[in-house]
Amino acid sequence: MTIISIDFDAFYVSCHRSIDPSLRGIPFAVQQKHILCTVSYEARARGVKKLGSLSEARKICPEIQTVNGEDLTLYRAISRNVFAFLSDYLGTDTPIQKLGLDEYFIDITRVAAQPREQCDKQAQSQSHTQTHLVCAENRLTDSEEIYVSITADIRRQIYTHFQLTCSAGISNSVMLSKLVGNLHKPDNQTLLNVRSDAELQAFLDPFPLRKLHGFGRVVVDRLASLLGCENEDDLTVHSARTRLSLLDLEEEFGSRLGARLYHNLRGIDETVVKQSDIRPQQISIEDSSGKIDSAADAWAMLESVTERLVRRLDEEYATVDGGSGSNGRSRSVFELHPSRVRVSTRRTSTIPNTRVAAHVPESLSSAVGVSLFDIDRYTIEERARRLCRECLYSLTKKLYDAGVAHGANKLRVINVAFTDFVNGPPPAPIDKIIRSKKKTEVVHLSSSDDESVEGSEQEEDAIICPLCHAQLMSFTVESHMRFHELGD
Question: Which GO terms describe its biological process (predicted)?
C-alpha cells in the first residue's frame, strides 16, 4: 500500500494569489477579525507568526499586505474544484480522502498500473530533484521511482490548473505520509524510503508526539500526565514508546485506542484511506464574539450565521435545471438536500476557575421546513429569517437558558449546521403542489346541479391537502404544512 498526503502551502494565501498575481512574492497574510489565520512564507521569513495579531505583524513587517478572510466562499469553491479535478484525473479506483479545505490523503497503490499522462524528460528530472529522501543513502527501488513520479505529476497538475503549490509525503501509511510531508515545506515532496524496522524507529523516535497524526492535544495531555511530564515538548516518541506498555495505554485509553497508539509509536498505522463525497454530508457556518451577553445578542449573531449558511447551501448544492421558475428566470433545484438543522454553542463560565458542567447541552437540532428550499420564491435573506423563526430562535434560547442556569451566560461561539443530507430534490410546499394543478378537485355533498354550480363558484380557490385531504384557505396553508412536519 502506498499513500501520499497532499497539503497545500498557505492555502488561503495561495487562493488569493491564484486570482491576483500581484500578491505573489511579497509579505502577505489573510486575517480573520484581528488574527492572521494564514501567513505567506515571505512574511514568515520576516518573523510574522501564524495566528499572531495584525498589530504585532505590522510592527515586525510594516509592508505586509492583508485581506479579510472571514468569508470562506472563495476557499470553499477552489477546494471543491480541486477535489473534483483530482477525482476525475485519478479515476474511481483511487480513493481520495479530503480533510478540511486544504488536505488530502490519496491511496495511489493502483495508480501505477493505470495508463498515466506521459511526462517529458525535463518534467521527470524535476520530479526527482524536488523529492527529499528520509534515508539519502538508500537507493530508490523501481516502485519508489514510479510513486515519486506519480506524486510529482499530481502536484504539477494541481499547479497547472489552479496555480496552487502543495507539499506531499509518500509512505505506506496515512500517519507516516503526513509526518514526512511536513518536513520540507513549501512546494516539495518527501519519500519515506527506510529499509528496516530499525531505520523506521530511529527516524520516528526524536519527534515530539504532537507531530504524529492522531496524537492531538487531548491525547498528548493525558500521556504527559501519565508520565509526569510537565513540558509536552519533552514528550517524544522515544520517551512514550520506552516507558508505556500496551497494558498502560489500554488502561488509560481503552483497548481499541490504546492498541492503536501503541502501534503508532512503532510506526504501524493501518488506517485506510476512505473516499470522500464530492459534496459533504454536513455543512456549517460559525462566528465568535466576546459580546454575546444576552439572548438578543445571540439571536443577532444567529441571523447573520444562518443567512451565510443558506447562501452556502445554494452555492454548493443548488443547480440550474434549464426550466423556468414562477419569476420567469431559470429554475434552481437541489439534487441533495439536508433534512435537519443543528445549532451549537460554546460558552464561557462566569464562575472563576470553573468549567461549565458537562451535562449542559451544547447543541440542539430540528427538522428542516420545506420553505428553506423554495429558492425561486424567496430570497436568501427571507429563507434564513423563516428558518430562524421556525426553529432556530427557540433552540438557541434553550441553549442560552441552560447555560445561564449553570453560571455560563456568556456565549463565545454560535455554529449552525445543515446535516443528514438526503439524495434527491426536497418535497415542494403544499400550496405549490396544489396550485401547479390546472384544476382543483372539490367534493360536494349535494347532488343538486344548482347547488353544485353554486358550490363550485364558492370553492373556486379552495386548496386540498394531499396528505389528509382537508380543505384549506390560502392563508392557512403554511401553518397546516408545519402541522404535518411536526406530526411526522
Answer: DNA repair; error-free translesion synthesis
Mapped onto helix, strand or coil, the DSSP state of residue 285 is strand
Q: What is the distance between the alpha carbons of residues 199 and 177, in angstroms, rounded to a whole number?
A: 16
pLDDT along the chain (488 residues), means of 10: 95 96 95 92 94 93 94 93 94 93 94 55 49 93 93 95 96 96 95 96 95 90 89 88 95 95 96 90 87 80 93 87 55 86 80 51 87 88 93 89 72 90 80 49 41 38 57 63 59
- The dihedral through the CA atoms of 92, 98, 103, 108 has a sign that is negative
The DSSP annotation for 315-357 comes to HHHEEEEEEE-TTSSEEEEESEEEEEEEEEEEEE-SSTT----
One domain for residues 377 and 444:
no
Is residue 218 domain-shared with residue 162, that is, in the same domain? no
The answer to the question of residue 270 being in a domain is: no
**Of 344, 343, 341, 396, residue with least CA distance to 369:** 341
Distance CA 348, CA 355 (A): 8
Contact (Cβ atoms closer than 8 angstroms) between residue 105 and residue 273: yes
* Prediction pTM value: 0.76
Inter-residue contact 167 to 188 (CB < 8 Å): yes
Both 340 and 368 in a single domain? yes
* 253 and 375 together in one domain: no
Q: Are residues 41 and 170 in the same domain?
A: yes
Per the structure, the complete domain to which residue 473 belongs is given by: 432-487
